[in-house]
């Protein structure tokens, strides 16, 4: 349902979007930014504008534009960044009304996913960019997209869990670029400031992946910006959630984290945050002793295991050398065989070429000798015969090649046909065998309901019928008489059938006439509305019908003209008899349609 009192600027933008071609839609949608910026923040007017934008499907158009290729959009990444700002500002603070379920379950998750996909595309373009100005522009656009995503998550906290579980977000976090990685980790830090409780609602696998990436960037990245951001983020996680702090202390995955952090350079800009993190990760004395014991035990186990593996490899070394020599010799033999085979094939090719040349030379010599022998007048005839023979040989070879090719193409269908015939034969044999078994093993049950007394009765009836109707041969005269009788009856039947057909046609014509009259009467206007000669069109051609209509009319008139005291004993539906003389007098002056006066 479209809202009332809609801003005319939004109506014009919606009309232009509906009428304009696809390539002009992004530029038209940029006009929404001016409308949103010109409205005071937090006012009821801004809420009404956002509702109008949503009701006219302009937010959906923004989502469709963000899913397109950037090279096809006028303005490129600049247009995309402005559309993300428009989309995030329109979705935050919007009251969808009746379409709340569709808005919260479909549109918002789709918008967050589109922002993450845009971030991935910008990341790949930033990494592949060669010029510094292009990189600065792409980085600026990437920051705008992350800010728009953070603004959207700040207005709809329920999307934080979906974003943290997304594979696109994890790929953005795993980048090696300093600026992109710093921006993504800053956004993650801001998200956790908004709602850090959703971190434990995601899957354990995704949580470990995020922690592993933050710890990796803290320990292995040379950039101080990344290390400072990773330190702040890890400190925020450890201070906010006791479970993460326990995981960083006791988990085997982060066993050497504290010792590696102690080796970090002192006097850096983030030394204070690093010291706070070390204080949080510092265990008690007995925990340190336990860790040392476990470390020594692990070293002993590793030493024994490495020694075992080394001795095992040394024992297998002779056999490995033999296997290596065997495989090398086999490979060398194979290479020599291939070389010999290629040499033999080359020799055969040369021999075939020499044979063709000799055969060509002999054929030409034979032709020259034949030309010397043949009479000069027969040379043309001889050449024509040679050409015909050559043409026949060429046709023969070509037809053979074509038929072989067609046979190879039809071979799969022939195999399928043979397979189908084989299957059909097997199935028919199986069915015949089943029917045969069924007949063999099915016992004869006899005739049901036929007793000996009934058999005697039926036999008597058959004998009586045979006795009363003895078989006799008919003579020629009797056959002719019977044939004449049959012809006479057949003629009588055909004549009667013709009369019946004419009568049936007459009945059908009458029924059609009656139907036509009924339709005309139904469609006829009332007597008050009738004009001219319209009433004469509905005069009946049947005398009984006209008489009955006249009788009903006279009865109605007599009943209307009678005094009131004569109507006292009458019933409402009772008919009044009319004398026949009055009826005949009246009928004398009645015109019956389709008849002539006497």
TrEMBL record:
Listed InterPro entries: ARM-type_fold, IQ_motif_EF-hand-BS, IQCB1, P-loop_NTPase
Keyword annotations of the record: Calmodulin-binding, Cilium biogenesis/degradation, Coiled coil, Cytoplasm, Cytoskeleton, Repeat
Gene3D superfamilies reported in the protein's UniProt record: 1.20.5.190
Matching SMART domains: IQ (SM00015)
Domain of life, per lineage: Eukaryota
GO MF terms, alphabetically ordered: calmodulin binding
PANTHER family, alphabetized: IQ CALMODULIN-BINDING MOTIF CONTAINING PROTEIN 1, IQ CALMODULIN-BINDING MOTIF-CONTAINING PROTEIN 1
Protein name per UniProt: IQ calmodulin-binding motif-containing protein 1
Organism (species): Orycteropus afer afer
Organism placement in taxonomy: Eukaryota, Metazoa, Chordata, Craniata, Vertebrata
Designated gene of the protein: IQCB1
């Amino acid at each position: 349902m479209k809202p009332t009192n809609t801003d005319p600027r939004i109506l014009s933008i919606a009309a232009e979007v509906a009428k304009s071609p696809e390539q002009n839609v992004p530029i038209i949608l940029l006009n929404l930014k001016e409308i949103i910026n010109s409205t005071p923040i937090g006012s009821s007017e801004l809420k009404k504008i956002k509702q109008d934008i949503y009701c006219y499907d302009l937010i959906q158009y923004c989502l469709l534009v963000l899913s397109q290729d950037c090279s096809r959009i006028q303005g490129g990444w600049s247009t995309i960044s402005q559309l993300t700002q428009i989309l995030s500002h329109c979705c935050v603070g919007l009251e969808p009304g009746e379409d709340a379920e569709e808005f919260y379950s479909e549109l918002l998750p789709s918008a967050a996913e589109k922002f993450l996909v845009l971030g991935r595309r910008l990341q790949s373009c930033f990494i592949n960019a060669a010029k510094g100005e292009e990189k600065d522009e792409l980085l600026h656009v990437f920051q705008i997209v992350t800010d728009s995503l953070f603004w959207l998550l700040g207005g709809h906290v329920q999307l934080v869990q979906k974003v943290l579980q997304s594979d696109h977000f994890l790929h953005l976090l795993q980048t090696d670029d300093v600026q992109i990685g710093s921006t993504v980790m800053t956004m993650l830090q801001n998200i956790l400031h908004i709602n850090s409780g959703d971190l434990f609602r995601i899957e354990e696998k995704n949580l470990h992946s995020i922690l592993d990436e933050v710890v990796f960037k803290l320990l292995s990245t040379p950039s101080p910006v990344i290390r400072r951001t990773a330190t702040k983020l890890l400190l925020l996680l450890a201070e906010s959630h006791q479970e993460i702090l326990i995981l960083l202390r006791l988990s085997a995955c982060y066993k050497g984290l504290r010792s590696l952090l102690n080796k970090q350079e002192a006097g850096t800009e983030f030394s204070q945050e690093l010291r706070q993190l070390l204080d949080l990760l510092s265990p008690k004395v007995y925990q340190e002793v336990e860790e040392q014991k476990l470390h020594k035990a692990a070293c002993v186990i590793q030493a024994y295991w490495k020694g075992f593996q080394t001795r095992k490899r040394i024992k297998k070394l002779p056999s490995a050398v033999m296997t290596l020599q065997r495989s090398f010799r086999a490979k060398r033999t194979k290479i020599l065989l291939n070389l010999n085979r290629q040499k033999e094939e080359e020799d055969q090719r040369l021999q075939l070429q020499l044979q063709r040349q000799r055969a060509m030379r002999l054929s030409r010599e034979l032709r020259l000798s034949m030309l010397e022998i043949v009479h000069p007048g027969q040379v043309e005839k001889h050449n024509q015969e040679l050409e015909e023979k050559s043409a026949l040989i060429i046709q023969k070879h070509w037809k053979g090649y074509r038929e072989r090719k067609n046979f190879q193409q039809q071979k799969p269908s022939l195999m399928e046909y043979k397979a189908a015939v084989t299957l059909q034969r097997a199935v028919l044999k199986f069915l015949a065998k089943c029917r045969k078994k069924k007949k063999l093993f099915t016992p004869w049950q006899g005739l049901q309901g036929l007793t000996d007394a009934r058999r005697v009765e039926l036999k008597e009836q058959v004998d009586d019928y045979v006795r009363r109707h003895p078989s006799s041969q008919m003579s020629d005269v009797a056959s002719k008489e019977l044939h004449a009788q049959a012809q006479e009856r057949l003629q009588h039947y055909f004549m009667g059938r013709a009369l019946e057909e004419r009568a049936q046609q007459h009945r059908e014509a009458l029924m059609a006439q009656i139907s036509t009259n009924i339709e005309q009467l139904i469609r006829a206007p009332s007597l008050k509305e009738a004009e001219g000669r319209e009433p004469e069109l509905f005069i009946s051609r049947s005398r009984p019908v006209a008489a009955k209509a006249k009788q009903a009319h006279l009865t109605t008139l007599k009943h209307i003209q009678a005094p009131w005291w004569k109507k006292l004993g009458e019933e409402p539906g009772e008919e009044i008899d009319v004398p026949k003389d009055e009826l005949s007098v009246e009928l004398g002056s009645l015109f019956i349609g389709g008849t002539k006066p006497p």
